[in-house]
UniProtKB/TrEMBL annotation:
<dbReference type="GO" id="GO:0005886">
    <property type="term" value="C:plasma membrane"/>
</dbReference>
<dbReference type="InterPro" id="IPR017452">
    <property type="entry name" value="GPCR_Rhodpsn_7TM"/>
</dbReference>
<feature type="transmembrane region" description="Helical">
    <location>
        <begin position="60"/>
        <end position="78"/>
    </location>
</feature>
<feature type="domain" description="G-protein coupled receptors family 1 profile">
    <location>
        <begin position="41"/>
        <end position="290"/>
    </location>
</feature>
<comment type="similarity">
    <text>Belongs to the G-protein coupled receptor 1 family.</text>
</comment>
<keyword id="KW-0675">Receptor</keyword>
<keyword id="KW-1133">Transmembrane helix</keyword>
<feature type="transmembrane region" description="Helical">
    <location>
        <begin position="197"/>
        <end position="219"/>
    </location>
</feature>
<keyword id="KW-0472">Membrane</keyword>
<dbReference type="GO" id="GO:0004984">
    <property type="term" value="F:olfactory receptor activity"/>
</dbReference>
<protein>
    <recommendedName>
        <fullName>Olfactory receptor</fullName>
    </recommendedName>
</protein>
<feature type="transmembrane region" description="Helical">
    <location>
        <begin position="25"/>
        <end position="48"/>
    </location>
</feature>
<keyword id="KW-0297">G-protein coupled receptor</keyword>
<dbReference type="InterPro" id="IPR000276">
    <property type="entry name" value="GPCR_Rhodpsn"/>
</dbReference>
<keyword id="KW-0552">Olfaction</keyword>
<dbReference type="GO" id="GO:0004930">
    <property type="term" value="F:G protein-coupled receptor activity"/>
</dbReference>
<dbReference type="Pfam" id="PF13853">
    <property type="entry name" value="7tm_4"/>
</dbReference>
Length: 317
């Protein structure tokens, strides 16, 4: 396309999930409730880990980071989506769109690296339990957490800069619930092959590499568990990984399906539903999974509720 026909838009219009008003109101109520549960649930997990000394372990240090990522990821998308559900003009300024893409993409990348780090933590706990505290010392845990945050942020910065250097011409309608990278690059009036390659490369680095590390960790974990002779011992070893494994299956599955091959990506509706899953459902499910399936967390909850009950009784008397 000729350069004189290439212009830069000042704002985008997000088409969202539906144009029907009744549907939008229903979705607003549903998503608002789920967002509030997300914020409350994840902050309660963080608070519980801070207050209970029994949870001051590497596993729960990484879980704190995961909860922060979940809340931040949901906050980067859901408030804007809630506002648009009640607005006729669903506009988002160019800068806000770029910021939303940067934070959502970065936090998504951080989560995948964190899940790989947590898989390594579970590998050490099951396969080398006697040296667990020596290997997973505070300094290593801090460095692993920093690596997760830095790698996800750097990749997101690169992808955001590359994406928003594309001329969008007069096309400003994004058929999505947020400024998602695949939806944004479709607006470009130039060849986007290089962007698709960049997305694929970053997907391999920040998605498939952590996924392979998770896979290798669980191959070793399962191999070790199968060597345990007692049934009770096998159950106990598997139970230490059950919550993390559940989150890994949910988190990696749809992202691999969406991002590894942009040219053969799912339909627009599927992409929207996948985004809703990650922005709303996953942040709600994570604290539930780690609470319901974890004896230590349930024990900490019971202890905290008992203390609160005792304080309430004293105040009442």
């Amino acid at each position: 396309m000729d350069t004189e026909n290439q212009t830069w838009v000042r704002e985008f219009i997000l088409l969202g999930l539906s144009s029907d008003w009744d549907t939008q109101v229903s979705l607003f109520v549903l998503f608002l409730i789920m967002y509030m549960v997300t914020v409350l649930g994840n902050f309660l997990i963080i608070l519980l880990i801070r207050l209970d000394s029994r949870l001051h372990t590497p596993m729960y240090f990484f879980l704190t980071n995961l909860s922060l990522v979940d809340v931040s990821y949901a906050t980067s998308i859901v408030p804007q989506m809630l506002a648009h559900l009640l607005e006729a003009h669903k506009a988002i300024p160019f800068v806000s769109c770029a910021a939303q893409l940067f934070f959502s993409l970065g936090l998504g990348g951080i989560e995948f690296v964190l899940l790989a780090v947590m898989a390594y933590d579970r590998y050490v706990a099951v396969c080398d339990p006697l040296r667990y505290s020596v290997i997973m010392h505070g300094g290593l845990c801090t460095r692993l957490a920093i690596t997760s945050w830095v790698s996800g942020s750097m990749n997101s910065l690169m992808q955001t800069v590359i994406t928003f250097q594309l001329p969008m011409c007069t096309n400003k309608y994004i058929d999505h619930i947020s400024c998602e990278i695949l939806a944004v690059i479709r607006l470009a009036c130039v060849d986007i092959s290089s962007n698709e390659i960049a997305i694929m490369v970053s997907s391999i680095v920040l998605l498939m590499t952590p996924f392979c590390l998770v896979l290798l960790s669980y191959i070793q974990i399962i191999s070790t568990i199968l060597k345990i002779q007692s049934t009770e011992g096998r159950k106990k070893a598997f139970h230490t990984c059950a919550s993390h494994l559940t989150v890994v299956v949910l988190c990696y599955g749809m992202t691999i399906f969406t991002y590894i091959q942009p040219r053969s990506s799912p339909s627009v509706l599927q992409e929207k539903l996948i985004s809703v899953f990650y922005a709303i459902l996953m942040p709600v499910l994570n604290p539930m999974i780690y609470s319901v399936r974890n004896k230590e967390v349930k024990g900490a909850w019971q202890k905290l509720l008992g203390q609160l009950s005792g304080i309430t009784s004293k105040l009442a008397t």
